[in-house]
């Protein structure tokens, strides 16, 4: 079982909302809406995606990483290295 | 005319691709794909949104802000203050 | 005259404070303080640097870019392209 | 023993270098150097701070969080929640 499985519906709901936000951006551009207003909505969609990432990462640490650490040895080291790499990508995106 | 009007189709194409990425994220969660893989795809979608923002901002400076500055006075000051606020939101999202 | 010249003392004061924050980080590491506490202080120093950047960028737009735009032609285009590149670096740092 | 203790000297060296970068920024402002050049150096200092954070976080996961998880129970949950909060601050700074 994955970390996020228990909250799957909530994550799907959030992702559908973000999909709607991106479609909304298309309508704004279609309708020649003011650049700054489009930029404001993009920042909102980016923040929503970021929040999903932080939630998934938290659950990953609690479940997948914790299980691997309990197992110990190379499995644990690899899982932590993998999580650190994901954190780096998230910080730099 | 807005800064991005000349590139409207290109922006719409990029936003439709990002919409597809977000739908792809839903399928990954639907199919219980590994958390790290979902996180990697979210970082890709976030970077794509960020690139759209940077493009719109560049065009906004070239057209809307430049026109206002050429006009001078309060119009110019307001337009630059507005652009700076948008840059701050972008940096902090 | 540069955009920030009028506020030079304020920027120097802020940078000296950030220098002090970084020295403080060294003391924390020297004294084996808890990782999370060190991380919290690094985030504070990073935010302070970011705020200096946003201030300088705002002043740059108001003065250097506005002057170039008033001049028009290639000078204006180069100055806006340069500002956009700086915004991109700031967003991605 | 903290996660970073084994690499303490390396972290101190990096932080001293960042301190030097911030003093360098002061000299640039003192000498009225061009705004964009100052901004470029601030981005470099911000990236250096970020890299220190990512290093500390990786070591924290490997040592402090791993030890707590091996212990299990509330200690583990608290330690992971604390790490997640630090990751959120890092992503949003």
UniProtKB/TrEMBL annotation, chains A, B, C, D:
It is found in: Cytoplasm. Keywords: Copper, Cytoplasm, DNA-binding, Metal-binding, Repressor, Transcription, Transcription regulation. InterPro entries: Metal_Tscrpt_repr, Metal_Tscrpt_repr_sf. Its main location: cytoplasm. GO terms for molecular function: DNA-binding transcription repressor activity; metal ion binding; transcription cis-regulatory region binding. Pfam families: Trns_repr_metal. GO terms for cellular component: cytoplasm; protein-DNA complex. The keyword DNA-binding applies. Gene3D superfamilies: Metal-sensitive repressor, helix protomer. It comes from the Bacteria. Belongs to the CsoR family. PANTHER family: COPPER-SENSING TRANSCRIPTIONAL REPRESSOR RICR, TRANSCRIPTIONAL REPRESSOR FRMR-RELATED. This is DNA-binding FrmR family transcriptional regulator. It comes from Saccharothrix saharensis.
């Amino acid at each position: 079982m994955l970390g996020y499985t228990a909250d799957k519906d909530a994550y799907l709901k959030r992702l559908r909302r973000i999909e709607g936000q991106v479609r909304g951006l298309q309508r704004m551009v279609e309708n020649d809406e003011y650049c700054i207003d489009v930029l404001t909505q993009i920042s909102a969609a980016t923040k929503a995606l970021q929040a999903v990432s932080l939630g998934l990462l938290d659950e990953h640490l609690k479940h997948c990483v914790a299980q691997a650490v309990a197992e110990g040895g190379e499995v644990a080291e690899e899982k932590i290295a993998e999580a650190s790499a994901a954190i780096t990508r998230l910080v730099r995106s």
